[in-house]
Amino acid sequence: MTKQLGRILLVSFFITLLITGLAGAYDYPFTDPFVATVVGTPSELSEKLPSKVPVKVDSIQMFPDRKVPGKLWSFSELRYSYTRQSGPAPLIFLIAGTGASFNSAKMIGMQKAFYQAGYHVISLTSPTHPNFVVAASTSGVPGDIEEDSADLYKVMQKVWQKIGKKIEVTNFYLTGYSLGAANSAFVAKLDEQEKVFNFRKVLLINPPVSLYNSVLILDALLEENIPGGLDNFNAFYDRLINAFADVYAHGEGVEFNNDFLYKAYEYRKPTSDEPLKALIGMSFRLSSMNMAFATDVLTKANYVVPKNLIIGRHDNTHVYSKVLSRLTFLDYFHDVLLPYAQSQNPQVTEPQMIKKLSLRRIEDYIRTSPKFGLIHNEDDIILLPGEIDYLRGVFGERAKVFPSGGHCGNMNYPDNVAAMIGFFQAFKQ
Amino acid sequence: MFMKTDHKVRLLFAVCCTLVLFVSGCSVTPKVDPNIAYEPPKHQAEDVLREGVVYASDVYDPWEGMNRRIYSFNYYFDKFIFLPIVRTYEFITPDYVEDRVSNFVDNVFEFNNFTNNLLQLKFKRTGITLVRFVVNTTVGVAGLWDPATGWGMPRQTEDFGQTLGHYGVGHGPYIVLPILGPSNLRDTTGFVGDTLAFNNFGPPYWVDDDDVALAFTVVSAIDKRHRESFRYYQSGSPFEYGMIRMLYTSKREIEIAK
């Protein structure tokens, strides 16, 4: 009798476990990683965040003596934003992904989520953004993740010097997404020696493992998915605009807002991933173009602009944008980044440089430091096969890997926001 | 003379003349110094760009020198005049009131949607616009609220630039208008046409009070800038001028197709 009762209890216990397990299943809507990456999270399914938070946009000068060429005049001061709580609270630094600024859509989403959860937030532009290249990069040649992160660390200190008096901080935290996540890890390592902030917790969201591998993947997405090759980009663009026009004319309640891509996708689901891949590649190419041009003009790298040519503020640079639209990040690596590294240290070889641009370089530190956490997606498109398992191995129990979401597509999804905030909340006093 | 005063058109004309005088003859090519031997860069246009390839970013822009300078002028106008006014407006006005103002402005401008839907022979949309105007002006208390959208009658936005496009008029040269921003010859013509029709046959004519019309022009300008999130030189691209030129042209194509 007791035995039977015990068995019934045991069975019902397992059934309960199973049901709660199912109820907790991950319901992010897109299982195709390319759709997720492009469309993101539709606003009706996103975490409900305040529509406005009290944000201050400010700027600092890192190199007051730097002569900024006319064409880059608008980038001479580094812009950033912050939002503060009225009383004492922990402060979190956010670092943007490749080519993104402090006020990109993803950064604003994170800023609101952390503000709502009771943090002071400082949002920083990626070292690969032209504003950072011109205003805050010591070398002016972004791409070496260690140097870029050292620049970021200096920016953080300068910002802190400027606004720290106004803010009561209990603890410092750090996070970033995509390349910004990789930057966070290197910044944290530097902070172990310099001890300016003594970051308590550091969260990496969708980081690449090897930058080199990830840019190869992203370069290829554009090169391989425009029917007929890049010289036929215009035809691809025309089809895209026609498709958007069709959605806008006939779709219901379609407006030019954050949900436009989602509505477009719902109305006219593409039959293959090709156009989505091309769009992701295009977005990455635009970031690379902006970055490479800023570096080229600032450092006279003789990459696409003749070395001594002075480009004035109002001068036409269209031809350079066309040339850059045909060049890959790998071209930049070979023709600008590597030569720069070799000018600093002639012994540096290409394989060494490739190896340098990877989280593997600080694997031991990440493995042993309890301050790290990871949020990633099983199907992130910027990782090579095996890299997600590598990350799982390094982070162990500190890794939260979602089954879908592509590259950062699910960052605004409620489960993801909860995981992001929850990681820090567990340690907030 | 039946033409009434057209503040916007006159202002635009005056600003244009000043700027044309100010910036005429500007060049857009980087100055090449004959005494310097320019080392060719690693990747030159001659090697990379193939002949006969069409680029999405190529938009007809014969007045680029002037356009780029007006673009820059707009940045400073925004920075020192327009945006401070808009920020003051946003500071003293509760969000709720701002939304009422936006609805009111939209409702008054239904006149343009009506005439242009009619000109394009889109009768259903013309009808919706008319019913919207009646419903929102009455039930919506002079247009402060927009119950019509909730009742399945969304706004049917059309302007005279779109009407011209609808009948096959190409966009013509790209133009950056002082204060108003990106446009082209077709859309500028459209804007002037809409403004003349609005002032001579639309709400200002019905009201027949120059002070009220002027007040409305000011309020609608502030409201529009308040709703427009675009900020000059904040895109993060050194190629912003060309990007905006391409996107503006595409956006108008999409709007015309509707």
- Specify the CATH homologous superfamily of the largest domain in chain A: Alpha/Beta hydrolase fold, catalytic domain
Q: What would you report as the Rg of chain B, rounded to the nearest angstrom?
A: 21 Å
**Count of individual beta strands of chain A:** 8
Q: Number of helical segments of chain B?
A: 12
**Class from secondary-structure proportions of chain A:** alpha/beta
Largest sheet geometry of chain A: 8 strands, mixed
Order of helices and strands of chain A: HHEEEHEHHEHEHHHHHHHHEHEH
Spell out the blueprint of helices and strands:
The complex is a heterodimer of chains A (429) and B (258).
Chain A: H1 2-23, H2 33-39, E1 56-60, E2 78-83, E3 89-95, H3 105-116, E4 120-124, H4 130-136, H5 145-163, E5 169-177, H6 179-194, E6 201-205, H7 211-223, H8 233-250, H9 260-267, H10 274-299, H11 318-325, H12 329-344, H13 350-356, H14 363-368, E7 372-377, H15 387-395, E8 399-402, H16 414-425
Parallel strand pairs in A: 3-4, 3-5, 5-6, 6-7, 7-8
Antiparallel strand pairs in A: 1-2, 2-4
Chain B: H1 7-23, H2 45-48, H3 64-92, H4 95-108, H5 110-119, H6 123-138, H7 147-150, H8 160-166, E1 174-177, E2 181-184, H9 185-201, H10 203-207, H11 210-227, H12 240-257
Antiparallel strand pairs in B: 1-2
